[in-house]
Amino acid sequence: MGKFGGASVILALVYIISSVTFIVGLKMLSHPAKARNGNLIAAAGMTLAIIGTIFLYKDENGNALHNYGWIFSGIMIGAIIGTLAAKKVQMTAMPEMVSMFNGMGGACAALISIVEFNHFTEVFTKSGWSEVPWQLTVNMTGHLLTMYAGALIGGVSFAGSMIAWGKLNGKIKDYSFKGQHILNLAMFVLALVLIIYLLFQLDPANYRLFYLIPVLSLAYGVLFVLPIGGADMPVVISLLNSFTGVAAACGGFLYNNKVMLTGGILVGAAGTLLTILMCKAMNRSLKNVLIGNFGGNHITASQNKTGGNYKEISVSDAAVAMAYARKVMIVPGYGLAVAQAQHACHELEKLLEEKSVEVKYAIHPVAGRMPGHMNVLLAEADVNYENLLEMDQANDEFKTTDVVLILGANDVVNPAAKTDPSSPIYGMPVLEVEESKMVIVNKRSMKPGYAGIENELFFHPKTSMLFGDAKTVLQQLIAEVKML
Amino acid sequence: MLNWISENQQIIYIVILMIFLGIEVIGHVPSVLHTPLMSGANAIHGVVIIGAIIVTGKAESNNYVALILGFLAVILGTLNVVGGFVVTNRMLEMFKGKKASSNSSKGGEKK
Question: Cβ contact (<8 Å) for A108 and B73?
Answer without folding.
Answer: yes
